[in-house]
Write a structure and sequence with these properties.
GO terms for molecular function: metalloaminopeptidase activity; peptide binding; zinc ion binding. The protein has 809 residues and is α+β, with helices and mostly antiparallel strands. The chain contains 22 helices and 32 strands.
């Protein structure tokens, strides 16, 4: 087990009251916490494969796996039969006695680790969840989960591995371990050598809406064709090489559902035999359009290359005709793809297909075909927005990383709400069919479709090209992608109700008690959405807009993407690159945001205004008199005055003396002599400093802050002055370096600039949890009076069952 895994295990096993690793390291006998301690002690040491700047080392290597696959879809049996040849190149410096393959379909076996360890009522499945037993109430089972249990009992899922042989037919010994398979080689594979082997397999396709998977079929029983129609989405559908890396060796971690994929790049040649009325969308380039498309469809595809708007390749009318009839045979579609880490595809007779060319002048792929495939249920929502969102995504993401690296970018509608693969994505939202036959959609469905297309197409950049390890670190791709999809969303239309990715969106999660550090392994995260998507995105927004600044952040992120394009980065590579390229020490930021569960809550506790003592009695004693007169009148004196109680000295003038005309602040010659002596004793520089201060008569304020959330952050101040002017001031996070719990800061403003009020984080940039303690003076907290009636009792003992039995209301 690597060092970082041990450290994370320590973190997750620590009692709740213990300080999180990397935050609470005690360096003194007191309670000092060094939140700016360097992160190098946590990160793996640089080496010849990954250097200290975060770039690939001069001996960086990665394996290659090429596939030639032939697959056949049996629509009626919901079964896929396939065989393939794998060519594996050992680019590592190591000799490998065996090879490990991923068998992700085995996750659907009833005895799989994922199935056996899914807790009742807990997270871990996509789609509806089991209702958890809580508060002493009886446990409940939802109909969705009951249907899933029945489907698992009625069907045998998982891979049927029929044959594993060398290219010459020699059988290879193999051992299946859950979602993994070890293939023992007849001779160890030395560094630089290549091996070819063949696998024949089959599996029953899950119904996605029943099993809650990342792929599967969706049945439409009400379609006009007898027996209905289907959409098939295929992902994790073939045995894939387990990654072998410099930092872990074989990545043979069981697939449990949350941690997605760790994969090798390679070239693919895939043929799919499907019913002859199906339309297929897949990773790669369609190699045989003349065999599967009509002449009219091929002409439309050609015209779409230079179109200003999406062009139908398969029209709604053609798709409707396919839905009404049945297949007369099969067609074989062939796709080829170079340097991709995975291969996915979709197949259905229901698909409408449109396309539009996107130009990237000077890029390796100067023309990218943006395409969408959807059934009639997608309606105008898909026609208007899907392909347009694909094009918009490429324009935005390329600014932050690199030109889109492949010739196609596709959005396919089906039962999967949102998943990504090289050149192809699965996206879920649809329209609603009304009684009059029209189709409409809500604002939330519009936002969902645009947002999910941006997000999933964005994944073709991260991690389909910047090939991070999703099985361990979901946040490495989901966090960057959520950040960029929010940037793209606000550039699409800032008035749409985008959510989840800005700092202010993450406050409820960051203050909750069920969060874990971002650096937690993917399958151990309780709330994956806010932990791996939202919180990292919020962190990057803060880095870009507040801590580093847009120019340096954008440069650093682009450098990270450029360095690790078609390579496999780790968290250390990302952290080090962002620091090295931006020129900013960010160890405190990574430590706080990614290794702890602290949140932001900076309180402005007090403001003291300082006045300069001039030592001149004619000035200072007058000011002290004015201060005394400004104090509230003594209560007893005020009540006496209001009641007309007589004052003795006013009614008896003969008892007055010197002190009735002069008070304690009366200036005497001795006071003036002392002042002159004070001036004479000053050094020249002291006299010069005092004279300048008297002349400037500046306003001095000491602001006292406390860090109640534990997460150190820059202190952003919104200053309002008595003359109505305002000013924004940002104090770097390093102000907390010697005391992360409380600090004070002196602010000086010129004469005439007196503070009226101050607010911390006035624009909600930093995810500050309690905005009320940000204001000084404290403001009145606005709330509402809500009119409501107490709900009627729902207990059956409280209902008039007698009246109900007689048909009365």
């Amino acid at each position: 087990m690597r060092l970082i895994a041990l450290l994370l295990a320590f973190l997750l096993a620590a009692p709740a009251a213990a300080p999180a690793f990397g935050q609470g390291i005690q360096q003194t006998k007191g309670d000092f916490e060094d939140k700016f301690r360097q992160l190098d002690e946590v990160l793996p040491d640089p080496n010849v494969y990954r250097n200290a700047s975060g770039a690939p080392g001069h001996q960086y290597w990665q394996q290659q796996a090429d596939y030639v696959i032939r697959a056949e879809l049996d629509e009626d049996k919901r079964r896929l039969e396939a065989e393939g040849t794998v060519r594996y190149v050992n680019n590592s410096p190591d000799t490998l006695p065996w090879i490990w393959m991923q068998l992700d379909q085995n996750i659907f076996r009833t005895d799989s680790m994922a199935e056996m360890t899914t807790t009742f009522g807990g997270p871990g499945r996509r789609g509806p969840r089991i209702d958890a037993a809580s508060g002493g109430e009886p446990a409940r089972l939802s109909l969705e989960e009951l249907r899933r249990q029945q489907a698992m009992a009625d069907n045998e899922y998982g891979y049927d591995i029929k044959r594993v042989t060398l290219a010459d037919g020699t059988p290879l010994s193999h051992t299946i371990v859950g979602t993994l398979m070890r293939i023992d080689l007849p001779a160890p594979l030395a560094s630089g050598e290549t091996v070819e082997f063949q696998i024949e397999w089959a599996f029953n396709i899950v119904e996605e809406n029943t099993i809650f998977a990342r792929s599967g079929y969706e049945h439409f029983p009400d379609d006009p064709r007898k027996g209905g129609n289907d959409i098939f989405l295929f992902a994790q559908w073939f045995p894939r090489l387990v990654a072998y890396s410099d930092y872990e060796g074989w990545h043979n971690k069981e697939f449990l559902g949350r941690g997605e994929f760790t994969l090798e790049f390679g070239d693919y040649d895939v043929t799919m035999t499907v019913p002859d009325d199906h339309v297929v969308s897949a990773t790669g380039v369609l190699a045989n359009p003349g065999e599967v498309l009509t002449a009219a469809q091929r002409q439309r595809l050609e015209s779409a290359r230079d179109a200003d708007a999406p062009v139908f390749i398969v029209t709604p009318e053609e798709a409707a005709a396919n839905e009404r009839t049945g297949p007369t045979g099969t067609k074989t579609w062939r796709f080829t793809a170079e340097n991709v880490r995975d291969f996915a595809w979709g197949s259905s007779r229901k698909f409408i297909w449109d396309a539009q060319g996107h130009r990237q002048p000077g890029a390796e792929n100067e023309l990218v075909m943006a395409m969408s495939f959807w059934p009639k249920e997608g309606g105008e929502l898909w026609r208007k927005y899907s392909t347009a969102a694909v094009v918009h995504t490429m324009k935005v993401y390329s600014r932050f990383s690199f030109d889109y690296p492949y010739p196609f970018a596709q959005s396919v509608n089906g039962p999967v709400g949102g998943m990504e693969y090289p050149m192809i994505t699965f996206n879920g939202p649809r329209t609603t069919l009304n009684e009059d036959g029209t189709r409409t959609y809500s604002l939330s469905e519009k936002v969902y479709l645009i947002g999910v297309v941006i997000h999933e197409i964005g994944h073709i950049y991260f991690p389909m090209t910047v090939n991070s390890d999703e099985r361990q670190w979901t946040w490495m791709d989901e966090g960057i992608n959520s950040f960029l999809d929010s940037v793209a969303g606000y550039e699409w239309d800032p008035d749409l109700p985008w959510t989840r990715s800005l700092p202010r969106d993450l406050i409820p999660y960051m203050t909750s008690s069920d969060q874990v550090p971002i650096m937690t392994q993917s399958d151990s995260v309780l709330n994956l959405g806010p932990n791996a998507y939202g919180k990292p995105s919020a962190a990057y927004h803060i880095l870009r807009d507040t801590v580093i600044g847009r120019e340096r952040f954008d440069f650093a992120l682009k450098e990270y993407a450029r360095r690790w394009k078609f390579k496999r980065p780790t968290p250390a590579d990302f952290f080090r690159t962002m620091e090295e390229a931006s020129g900013t020490d960010l160890d405190w930021f990574w430590r706080g945001w990614f290794y702890t569960t602290d949140h932001v809550d900076i309180s402005l506790d007090a403001i003291h205004r300082l006045r300069l003592d001039t030592e001149n009695p004619d000035i200072d004693l007058k000011r002290r008199r004015d201060e005394l007169l400004g104090e509230p009148e003594k209560v007893g004196v005020r009540l006496n005055r209001e009641q007309g109680v007589p004052i003795w000295v006013l009614e008896n003038p003969g008892v007055t003396d010197f002190y009735d005309e002069n008070d304690q602040f009366t200036v005497t010659p001795k006071d003036r002599e002392s002042y002159e002596s004070f001036l004479e004793e000053l050094e020249p520089w002291e006299r010069q400093t005092l004279d300048r201060a008297l002349k400037e008569d500046a306003n001095y304020y000491v602001l006292s802050f406390s860090n109640r959330g534990g997460l150190v952050m820059p202190i952003i101040l919104g200053l309002t002055f008595e003359d109505g002017s305002t000013q924004r001031m940002q104090i770097p996070a390093e102000i907390w370096r010697r005391n992360p719990k409380e600090v004070s800061k002196l602010l000086v403003f010129p004469k005439g600039k007196r503070l009226a009020s101050v607010v911390v984080d006035p624009n909600w940039e930093t995810a500050d949890a309690d905005i009320e303690n940000n204001h000084y003076p404290r403001r009145i907290i606005e709330s509402r009076i809500e009119a409501f009636k107490s709900p009627e009792a729902t207990s059956r003992t409280g209902r008039d069952l007698m009246a109900e039995s007689q048909g009365s209301n």
